[in-house]
Amino acid sequence: VPMVAPGNVQVHVINSTLAKVHWDPVPLKTVRGHLQGYKVYYWKVQSLSRRSRRHIEKKILTFRGNKTFGMLPGLEPYSSYKLNVRVVNGKGEGPASPDKVFTTPEGVPSSPSFLKITNPTLDSLTLEWGSPTHPNGVLTSYTLKFQPINNTHELGPLIEIRIPANESSLILKNLNYSTRYKFYFNAQTSVGSGSQITEEAVTIMDE
């Protein structure tokens, strides 16, 4: 098998899900056989928004021939990763380069995990929600938009409310009685807004 590990491994993080890795080729005489390519082993160490460590799954990408760089797609935003590089000949892999640590920047969050509308009264509704399963960063706020729907399914004016990221419920007051409302709800990080969840609810007709 090859004798030495690739040197001077560098990682260039392009965005929250993509990084580029470079390395110096090994001297051909140390390959001790036919150079087939290089393998990059990489794995997520932890998410920076949740300090939970889980089973670490190593991923491997093979770059054929004498390439000295490669792209690592499909990374998770706002996470810490490690990688190393090995050279491959017909017999197997050489030793791994020292582990290189890199972190991906924040991305936009997934949609809130749920939106529940309860306690209808004449002029109010209570909203409860769950934070996104994948925050992909530090949540900065939620945005709630809502509008009435009349009997012919036409949408009325859209109202927008910003809600602090640490809230998980809200009582909406001063609504019209016996009216159906449509709600659009999403979360934000400093990068931008995530995908929204929608729900409908009706205020009651009389007490």
TrEMBL record:
CDD domains reported for this sequence: FN3
SMART domains cross-referenced by the UniProt entry: FN3
Domain of life: Eukaryota
Location of the Fibronectin type-III domain: 5-107, 111-207
InterPro entries assigned: FN3_dom, FN3_sf, Ig-like_fold, Neural/epithelial_adhesion
Cellular component, GO, one term: neuron projection
SUPFAM superfamilies per the UniProt record, alphabetical: Fibronectin type III (SSF49265)
Gene3D superfamilies (alphabetical): Immunoglobulins
Keywords: Disulfide bond, Immunoglobulin domain, Repeat
Database matches in PROSITE patterns: FN3
Classification via PANTHER family: CTX-RELATED TYPE I TRANSMEMBRANE PROTEIN, NEURAL CELL ADHESION MOLECULE L1-LIKE PROTEIN
UniProt protein name: NRCAM protein
Species assigned in the record: Notiomystis cincta
Recorded name of the encoding gene: Nrcam_0
